[in-house]
Specification:
mainly beta; five-stranded mixed β-sheet; five-stranded antiparallel β-sheet; 1 helix; 12 strands; about 5% helix
Length: about 160
Amino acid sequence: MLLFIGCGSSNSSTNSSDCLFLNESLGCDGNCSTTPLKNDECGICDGDGSTCEGLWNVYYDVSVPIAGFQFEVNEGNIINASGGAATEAGLSVSNSPSTVLAFSFSGATIPPGTGTLISLEITGDSNSFCIKDLVLSNIGGDSIPAIIENCNTIKYSE
């Protein structure tokens, strides 16, 4: 005769003490297991982190004023772009699901320095996000030489 003992019932449980074996613990799905399911960083049971919504910051490190910028994000979707030095400087910020554009109608600029350029409200796996196709411009509309470091930091390159 084979006797199988697992969780106290065949129904899902919410109490870890319902697990009868010492090496079992309660998973996020309410079932006891030696390898219980866990919530991903988005709070999804047994998820892979690809459905997270949250903020992803783009940083800057420049020694010249920025009058405008544009870039694309290679993964996920941009829901909104706001905050950071772009908003503080009064730049008009627009976004599509993959592109951010910021400039000033009044000639305002982001002063030289370092910090958060813009915060993006995003969906998708932020670990795979990277900005690309970057364009920075000065008050005259000329391109500012820059590189992208660590996928989310814009750095002035002389």
